Amino acid sequence: MKSRISSFSALYFTLLIALLPLNIQASGMSNIGENAPAQQEEGAVDTQEKISAYIEHHIKDAHDFHLFSYNDSEGHRKHVGFPLPVIVYTSQGVRAFMSSEFHHDDSGHHVVAKDGVSLVKYHEKIYELGQGEDHLSFDADHHPENAHAVLDLSITKSVFGFLLVSLLLLFGFRSLANQYKKRSIPVGFGRVLEPLVLYVRDEIARPNIGEKHYKRFTGFLLTVFFFIWASNLLGLTPLGFNITGQLAVTFTLALFTYIITQFSGNKDYWKHIFWMPGVPAPMKVILAPIELLGTITKPFSLMIRLFANISAGHIVVMSLISIAIIMKSSMGVVGATALSFALSFFLTLIELLVAFLQAYIFTMLSALFIGMAVQEHDHH
Amino acid sequence: MIPNLVGAGLIVIGAGIGLGQIGRGAMEGIARQPEATGKIQTAMIIIAALLEGLAFGALFLGR
Fold first, then answer.
1. How far apart are CA A38 and CA A106, in angstroms?
2. Most C-beta atoms within 10 A of its C-beta, which of A103, A156, A286, A294?
3. Domain that holds residue B34
4. Three-state secondary structure call for residue B61
5. Cα distance from A250 to chain B (closest Cα, Å)?
6. Binning pLDDT at 50, 70 and 90, where does residue A81 land?
7. Which of B39, B52, B54, B61 to mutate: most A Cβ within 10 Å?
8. Closest CB from B45, B46, B54 relative to A301
9. Smallest Cα–Cα separation from A351: which of A324, A327, A326, A321?
């Protein structure tokens, strides 16, 4: 029964991936009503600029969960998805409502009034209008001039995906942990997880951190490894998540590595930073700021690497899907779709590898940095 | 705009040369000592990741 369900879901996702280019194509071909408002054009991608905007929209975080859009028989734009809660801290206190109150508006036109606070959404940022203002106006550089940004604590698409991944991991690993109480060899999905856990412990944590200290950090390394891997894989489904492609997410992950590295650093570690042994005194003075900067650049490169890899992967996959629309006129609908399907299919296979590789590299380098901080030097 | 694009190209050329050097070194190492393949591969991936971080960092800052 279990395997039937999983094969069904695999089939479902394969079909969704296969139908995704067709979906965009269908909405690209259907005509929009002449008097359609500006916002209704979103999703009907048939030019290069619109495709760029579409890809940029996907890469960014969003306040509602949007699967796809289509035009119904009367020419009205229909959006399929569900709203997510918006929680903002305004000058008048906390306001919470569902993102459906913005009515899919992202241009700052639709004003939501909440107990004396007027809020608009412009480019996925929520602004609070000044007192007595009833619409958003822009200065010469297209920046809002009569509104200020609010502290946004919303459950956005990425936060939703984040929570989903956490729940999935909690569920998967709890069932694995419970299995060890009854038997020594796990069954079912635990058989997939167990070798990975052992791999992270024996091939990443143990050789890089050292026999003496590795147990303290294995929990952290396992958490980041499985979180990044699961988030990357979730980003490959057609649901439109881009969790590890958000700079804020990778920043937080890198911050954890930074804090853990600095706080577990022993005497030798700090000595090697501030007063490098074995080099002449003037050199020690020069090396200290460089080494100090090095402690920051290491987690910084962790952050940029994960963010850039996943974002780049998403952009390339979406660009290849867009071939179906761009090449439609020169190759015909079937030829363009076949080409885009073949290319995006193989690129998605590479992205599956990248998803694992990036999780591996992040964990590996975190272990390496922690290992540098805790290792004991035996001076001769 | 154009200096950005030229810079991106230069970054990619540099990163490509670097990756080629890493790959060549690893291949030669594996050919000389096939029993050390695992260790060489791990080291190769780490160095490649460091290089990649540098290249992506440059591309990101120059955007």
1. 11
2. A156
3. 17-61
4. helix
5. 13
6. confident
7. B52
8. B54
9. A321
> How many residues in chain B?
63
Q: Does B27 touch chain A (CB under 8 A)?
A: no
Per-residue pLDDT reduced to its tens digit, A199-246:
999 989 998 898 888 999 999 999 999 999 999 999 998 887 889 988
Contact list in A for residue B49 (CB cut-off 8 A) is 305, 361, 364-365
- Give yes or no for A357 touching B (CB within 8 A): yes
A304 and chain B: CB distance < 8 Å anywhere? yes
Spatial separation of the C-alpha atoms in residues A16 and A36, rounded to whole Å: 29
Residue showing tokens 């490959």: A236
Q: Calculate the CA A132 to chain-centre distance.
A: 38
When CB atoms are compared, the residue of A304, A360, A365 closest to B60 is A304
Domain membership flag for residue B5: no
- In chain B, the number of structural domains is 1
Per-residue pLDDT reduced to its tens digit, B34-62 = 999 988 988 898 888 888 888 887 877 76
pLDDT, tens only, A233-257 = 999 988 878 899 888 999 999 999 9
B7 in any annotated domain: no
| ipTM exceeding cut-off 0.85 for this assembly | no
* B60 touches A: beta carbon within 8 Å: yes
